[in-house]
Amino acid sequence: MDFRTRLIKTLKCVGAVLQEPGVLIAGSEVPNLLEADARSTLVVSQDLDIVVPVESHAGVKARLQDIRGLKRSGEEPSVWLPLSTDLLEVNFIGMDKRSERAGETYLLEDDELPLIVFAQLSLLSPGKLLRIEGLEVPLPRPAGLLLEKLVTDRSGEKGERDLLVALALLLVCEPPDIRELEALYRGLPEEQQYAARSALSLLSLLAPYPQMPDPTPHRPLLAGLLARLETMGPAR
Amino acid sequence: MTAAMQRRLQRIREAGVIREWEYRQRNSAKGVWYRLRRVLVDAAKAYEVEDADADRFQREGEIPLPVGSELAPPKRIFFLPGERLRTASSRRPVPVRLGSELLQARNLILLAHGEKSPDDS
Questions:
Q1: A 88-117 → B contacts, CB under 8 A
Q2: A105, A204, A205: residue with CB nearest B9
Q3: Residues B49 and B90 in one domain
Q4: Domain membership flag for residue B97
Q5: Residue in B26, B37, B79, B94 to test binding to A, most A beta-carbons within 10 Å
Q6: Per the structure, how many domains does chain B have?
Q7: Which stretch of A74-78, A85-89, A157-161 has the lowest confidence by average pLDDT?
Q8: What is the ipTM of this complex?
């Protein structure tokens, strides 16, 4: 079974959760879904990240009973494991843009659906609703997800593949997305701005990976973006 | 709350602390890798040249980039136009990556994006 089929099947299994307002698909599957007809040619990870805004936590919990084909992990209850090999693992992760803890990485404790709330996910905002095979899949705007990929600490081969996902997102960005990226970047603390520039420099020098976009022909684009970001200080 | 999630959260927080430290160290030796990468980002191509060619470029007024002298052993790294590179008979292309070929080169000539290489047909 090809990866696209597994991805779409998994999305159907969690379709009830995707209907909860505010919920987003994030992570490395987004560029796969943004390809024409969600072709899903990038093989990055074998899981699907579902972002739960903290204000939607109760609503998502109420919909967990409608998930099919997956079971909650006993070891890490925010992870749902596939019951068959034709499905992907699903990770629920938290986003906080509103509470007094927004901008912090913390644990949202709950017996049924505990979540790690990631500070950088607050860069995400709702984007297009992808309609595919009868499903409505809420995706984030590419600029926020791209910046989130750049500022999140990662290492090793997984880290490099995640940077190539950032490249895949950059390649679908239109000029307004780039302006949005720059505006979001200006709002970051200096330390995170540096992290984003550092990640772009790493991305520019990566060797190609099979089934991932090759950064080599896009190095002038990356150099131009990095140069533009360097001209922007933090917002005052 | 599960121990696995607590451990994961702890790792994320530790990574954040390390990143803050790296940011504070960015202008010292710890930041040299970023400065080297930053120079390489602007390079479309890189060539290793022998000492004789690098010596000649310096005699002719080319100034090596400061980041090269921060490395141990130091490197001489120049950004040159394609026509200047053409005069370096010892030139040998190396991938613009942080790989062994580039890191072991004692002298590097970089060509900016948009600059025509003498080896292009």
A1: 105-107, 109, 114, 116
A2: A105
A3: yes
A4: yes
A5: B37
A6: 2
A7: A157-161
A8: 0.88
Q: Which residue of B has its CA nearest to A200?
A: B41
Q: Are residues A197 and A90 in the same domain?
A: no
Helix, strand or coil for residue A94?
strand
What DSSP string runs through B44-101?
EEEEE--HHHHHHHHHTT----HHHHTSSS--EEEE--HHHHTT-TT-EEE-SSSSHH
**Nearest Cα to A118, choosing from A140, A98, A100, A96?**
A96
* Tens digits of residue pLDDT in B15-54: 877 778 777 877 777 789 999 999 999 999 999 999 999 9
Beta pairing partners, A167: none
What residue numbers bound the domain in which B4 lies?
1-30
Residue among A109, A195, A207 whose CB faces B1 most closely: A109
DSSP-assigned beta bridge partners for residue A71? A81
Number of domains in chain A: 2
pLDDT per residue as tens digits for the range A167-223: 999 998 999 999 999 999 999 999 999 999 999 999 999 998 888 889 999 999 999
Least confident window among A50-54, A81-85, A100-104: A100-104
